[in-house]
């Protein structure tokens, strides 16, 4: 089975891009529970599920990236045996699950998940399969740097994405 990423919260919008926002109509919208409070949401992470990475995968990194561009959140050192992130992950730097993982967001209140924050923007979860059991970002407090490092690093075996859009009409 091919390396893939899904969520019961919304469907992947393959044609959904910043240039083609019409390619991401419902059911490709993030639910209210998964968007930031600034646009009427609850800012809880969605459940995310994936199939095993390619041979040699020793850990994973998950990031939420706004294609406008701005990286909202990253979680790294996800153990290779993990195939799911439960909804509403812990909000501390080292959440209780998955064990051994660390995260960072642009929030000044905590280090937890920061969902879509602009109505109508296109966002994607990026899951990286790594050839190392532990990953130490060069600047763990800067999600954009974490993402840039991963995009240029040869420890990445493969990347999959799950793309959706926040509701352009907002959330009430």
Walk me through this protein's architecture:
By secondary structure, the protein is mainly β. It has one helix spanning 143-152; strands at residues 5-6, 48-50, 59-66, 70-79, 84-85, 102-105, 122-130, 156-165. The protein has a 5-stranded antiparallel β-sheet with strand order 6-4-3-7-8, covered by helices on one side. A hairpin with a 3-residue loop joins strand 3 (59-66) and strand 4. The longest helix has 10 residues, at 143-152. The termini are far apart.
Primary descriptors:
172 residues; mainly beta; five-stranded antiparallel β-sheet; three-stranded antiparallel β-sheet
The CA-CA distance between the termini, in Å, is 39 Å
| Percent of residues in beta strands | 25-35%
Q: Please report the number of helical segments.
A: 1
Molecular shape: globular
What's the oligomerization state? Answer: single chain
Strand order within the widest beta sheet? 6-4-3-7-8
Low-confidence stretches: none
- The radius of gyration over CA amounts to 15 Å
Order of helices and strands: EEEEEEEHE
Pairing-aware structural class of the strands and helices? mainly beta
- The amount of helix comes to under 10%
Report the mean per-residue pLDDT as an integer: 94
The beta-strand count equals 8
Largest sheet report? 5 strands, antiparallel
């Amino acid at each position: 089975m091919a390396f893939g990423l899904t969520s019961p919260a919304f469907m992947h919008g393959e044609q959904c891009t910043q240039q083609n926002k019409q390619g991401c109509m419902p059911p490709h919208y993030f639910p209210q529970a998964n968007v930031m409070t600034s646009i009427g949401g609850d800012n809880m992470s969605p459940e995310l599920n994936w199939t095993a990475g390619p041979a040699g995968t020793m850990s994973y990194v998950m990031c939420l990236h706004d294609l406008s561009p701005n990286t909202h959140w990253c979680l790294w050192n996800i153990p290779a045996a993990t195939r799911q992130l439960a909804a509403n992950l812990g909000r501390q730097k080292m959440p209780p699950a998955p064990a051994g993982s660390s995260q960072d967001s642009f929030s000044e209140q905590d280090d937890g998940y920061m969902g879509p924050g602009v109505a109508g923007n296109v966002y994607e979860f990026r899951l990286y399969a790594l050839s190392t059991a532990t990953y130490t970002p060069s600047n763990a407090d800067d999600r954009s740097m974490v993402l840039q490092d991963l995009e240029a690093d040869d420890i990445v075996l493969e990347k999959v994405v799950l793309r959706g859009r926040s509701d352009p009409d907002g959330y009430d």
